[in-house]
Structure formats: structure tokens, C-alpha cells
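From the methods appendix. Each design record in this collection lists the discretized structure first, followed by the designed amino acid sequence. Records were kept in a plain field format so they could be parsed without special tools. The example shown here is representative of the layout used throughout.

RECORD:
C-ALPHA CELLS (362 positions):
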């Protein structure tokens, strides 16, 4: 039953509340705020993969030949990527992108055996953990949409929620929302096993890239300090953001994808795109992608100096400044993606570097 454009009415199977309006892109009861995941009967991971890999011509990245002939056409790297290398580990073939100043992004494509024997069962276990048993108790992995800050005052707090569902384990996650948090030792066994799987493969990737120094080893020992399972509905995704929360994020941020085919993009942060001079921090690598932004701020100062010195007239200085402001505003309306790649089922992504999330959003 359609109640108004873009909205539909549902009966919550958790608390039996009737006519709970939820936005078309997610299903959640307004009374108990529970999400209900729908699992098809007798679903098999191979069927799931076959249904979701149409973007990769229905094939899986099983060997180098496939990677060279298929994956590469989906990876888009632009100005700002200083190097690209291929790395091989026990379970993955990684593509490593050098972004300068010891910052890099690696994406690993698994072989078929890893997906079927290791990640396939993990996917089913996680799926079962999100289901209720009909007793009215919350599921073991109770993923919820967290309230976000609206910027409209305390009276509006909690009225907007994230489009994605999650629950944090380990160090509390508080950036821009109050995410439900539990101690790491209370995480379901499947989550801890996936964390160990991720840690092992990240260590192998870092070792293959020559980046496994003492600092990195300390960062990954004995395991990551935070685990954040996230769920999205098909077609949904996160807005541009950076994993730069103080006290939580270290030099390594990694993830493993257990859903349908997704895409990840990296771009410069707003302050590097609009021509602001970032003073006091020496984090911008000497590259045209970032320097072109700072030059706009320097050009503004130059126009002002020339006018004060009498080298240019008021009309000329005003015209040049207006043109520069229009150029800056134009850059504000666009995000220049410097890196984009697919994340199929089983893919691992590794962000490495102290200043990576200070410079880039994804």
C-alpha cells in the first residue's frame, strides 16, 4: 500500500506495529527500530555469486589471466596515483596503488577456493546471526541504523538515521553518529574469526609490498582494535567520508566484502579541492592534484598584493578575483575521483598510511 510518493506501509513482524512508514531504500520499524533481513530459502553462496557478478561478465577473479583481461578494465586510476603494482599472497592477488608519502591503497581479489571454503560459510553464519528466532529477543548480531547529527539542534537529534546498518565492537565508534558498541570479547565468534582472517591476509599483503615494518607489526598485534560489521540494501552505499576518527583509526584500516558487487572510490578532501591553503601540517605531497588547489589560494594573495602595491588597477584586480572565485566555486561542486575499483564478494581492501585519511575521502 502506497501512502505517499517514495514511501510504503508495512507491518513490523517484530513488534506487530501497523502502518509503519519506511523510506523505500530501507525497511525499519519506527516503533522498535528493528530491521528485518529477508533470506531466500535454501540460498547457496554459489547462486549468490552468480547473481551478483554480472558486472564482471559472470566470472570470478580466479587467476592472473582473468585479472589482466577483466578486472583491469574496471579499475580507474587518475592523476594522483603515483604507482601501481601487482602482489601475490596465499589467497589473494592484490593491486597496490601508491598515493605518495607512504600512503597506499590495496585491493585483493580472492581465488575461488577461498570464497567457497572460507568466506562462503562465514557469509551464511553472519546472515544467520542477524535473524531473530521468533522469541522477541534481538538477534545475536543486532545491526541497527544509528542516529546521526542533524545540525538543527538538540530537538532534532535522532530523527535522521544512517542508511546503512551496523554494530561496533572494540573501541567505541562515535564519528558523526552514536553507533551501538560492545566490547570486542562480546563479538560473535564468526566476527572474531573474520577479523583473524582479515588480519592474516593484511599481514601477508603488507609483507609482499615490503611495508611490514615494526610499526605496522605493532599496529596489527594482536588484532585490530575495532570491528564494524556493516550491511546495506542493494544499490545503497555510503557518502564520501574518511576513516580519521582520533583514538580509533591507526595506520591500517582494512575491510572484507561479503556482499554483492560494489565499487570503491577515492578523492581529495574538500579543502584540497577548493583552493584553501592548509597551514601547519606538512601532509600534502608535491603533486599537481593537491598543489593546484593551494595555488588558487596563493593566487588570491598575489592579486591582493599587486593591487596594494599599485601594480594593478581596482577594476583589473576585481575582475581577476571574481574569475578566481568562480573557478573555486566550480571545483566545490565536483569531486575529482582519482581511484575507483570494484569490490566483488570476498575482496579485501587495505588502507595504509598515517596521512591517507587526512588527505582523501572514499
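DESIGN:
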Amino acid at each position: 500500500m502506497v501512502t505517499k510518493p517514495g514511501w510504503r506501509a508495512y507491518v513490523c513482524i517484530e513488534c506487530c506495529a501497523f502502518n509503519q512508514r519506511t523510506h523505500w531504500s530501507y525497511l525499519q520499524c519506527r516503533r522498535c527500530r528493528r530491521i528485518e533481513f529477508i533470506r531466500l530459502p535454501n540460498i547457496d553462496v554459489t547462486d549468490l555469486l552468480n547473481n551478483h557478478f554480472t558486472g564482471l561478465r559472470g566470472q570470478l577473479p580466479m587467476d592472473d589471466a582473468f585479472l589482466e583481461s577483466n578486472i583491469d578494465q574496471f579499475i580507474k586510476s587518475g592523476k594522483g596515483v603515483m604507482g601501481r603494482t601487482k602482489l601475490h599472497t596465499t589467497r589473494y592477488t592484490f593491486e597496490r596503488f601508491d598515493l605518495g608519502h607512504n600512503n597506499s591503497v590495496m585491493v585483493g581479489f580472492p581465488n575461488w577456493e577461498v570464497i567457497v571454503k572460507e568466506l562462503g560459510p562465514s557469509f551464511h553464519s553472519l546472515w544467520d546471526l542477524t535473524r531473530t528466532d521468533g522469541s522477541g529477543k534481538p538477534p545475536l548480531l543486532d545491526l541497527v541504523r544509528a542516529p546521526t547529527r542533524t545540525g538543527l539542534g538538540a530537538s532534532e537529534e535522532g530523527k535522521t538515521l544512517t542508511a546503512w546498518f551496523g554494530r561496533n565492537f572494540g573501541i567505541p565508534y562515535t564519528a558523526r553518529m552514536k553507533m551501538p558498541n560492545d566490547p570486542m570479547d562480546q563479538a560473535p565468534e564468526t566476527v572474531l574469526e573474520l577479523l583473524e582472517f582479515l588480519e592474516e591476509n593484511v599481514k601477508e599483503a603488507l609483507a609482499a609490498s615490503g611495508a611490514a615494518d615494526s610499526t605496522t607489526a605493532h599496529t596489527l598485534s594482536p588484532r585490530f582494535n575495532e570491528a564494524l560489521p556493516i550491511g546495506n540494501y542493494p544499490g545503497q552505499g555510503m557518502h564520501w567520508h574518511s576513516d580519521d576518527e582520533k583514538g580509533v583509526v591507526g595506520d591500517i584500516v582494512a575491510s572484507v566484502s561479503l556482499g554483492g558487487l560494489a565499487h570503491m572510490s577515492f578523492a581529495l578532501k574538500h579543502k584540497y579541492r577548493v583552493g584553501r591553503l592548509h597551514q601547519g601540517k606538512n601532509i600534502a605531497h608535491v603533486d599537481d592534484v593537491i598543489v593546484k588547489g593551494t595555488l588558487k589560494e596563493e593566487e588570491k594573495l598575489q592579486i591582493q598584493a599587486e593591487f596594494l602595491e599599485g601594480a594593478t588597477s581596482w577594476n583589473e584586480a576585481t575582475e581577476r578575483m571574481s574569475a578566481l572565485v568562480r573557478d573555486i566555486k566550480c571545483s566545490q561542486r565536483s569531486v575529482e575521483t582519482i581511484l575507483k575499483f570494484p569490490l566483488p564478494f570476498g575482496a579485501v581492501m587495505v588502507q595504509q598510511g598515517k596521512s591517507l585519511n587526512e588527505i582523501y575521502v572514499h
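APPENDIX NOTE: Residues 1-36 form one domain.
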